[in-house]
Amino acid sequence: MILFGIPMTALLGQLLLGLVNGSFYAILSLGLAVIFGLLNVINFAHGALFMLGAVLAWAGLNYFDLSFWVMLLVAPLLVGLVGIVIERLFLRWIYRLDHLYGLLLTLGITLILEGVLRSIYGVSGLAYSAPISGATNLGFMIMPNYRGFVVVASILTCLATWFVIEKTKLGAYLRAGTENPRLVEAFGVNVPLMITLTYGFGVALAGLAGVLAAPVMQVSPLMGQNLIIIVFAVVVIGGMGSIMGTIVTGLGLGIVEGVTKVFYPEASSTVVFVIMAVVLLIRPAGLFGREK
Fold it and tell me: Considering the chain, what is the average pLDDT of its residues?
């Protein structure tokens, strides 16, 4: 079957590959949205912490013979601990300052992390084999089983995070603590600790995405640079701080990017930013954001 001069098998194949990319966009953007929505910090270090998760997965396998499944749990926890240290030492002092201070601070942290790991591993990619072998014939393409796992794991993680933040008492405390911390503290809630753990959780999501990406992308100290700008665009389009908006936008833009590669490959690397520009002109708060 041919659609607009493109074989249907090629179109469906690119849609599925776009969904895989979109799952990475969604889970990475989700961490950014959590941090900005609850802490009001633009975390430019998110890409570097995503890279740190992938490097930890590679190091765990090659130095300590720890399997992918072990590092899928351990690496996000370690990245989350790094995030807690960053929040306690640096970010806690700038919450009441202009957003520019947080952006510049986290950019500096990014450059330090990338510089240290680049001096150790260089800039060439490190191979990491997929923990799930084989592929499934979907009729229109051969789908590697691991990529299917990535899509499912990312969607489940995103939905679980949305549920905790939007539908539980803990999420209500988090939202209230950022809007009126003194009132929440009056109820006996340790707001500074809650904020620290929130930042740690947000960057742990980046670490989880890094572990999932390690078998798909080559592990490199610079791998976060390739995604962070797109991820910021996803958050802006979905609406800064909108959890569900970020999830839907991340998956949707991955699919749009995949379709663009079929019809007009030259625009596939810029289509996300074109969409961002159009959305900002029509709705500055983003598709799912709220006007303030």
Answer: 88
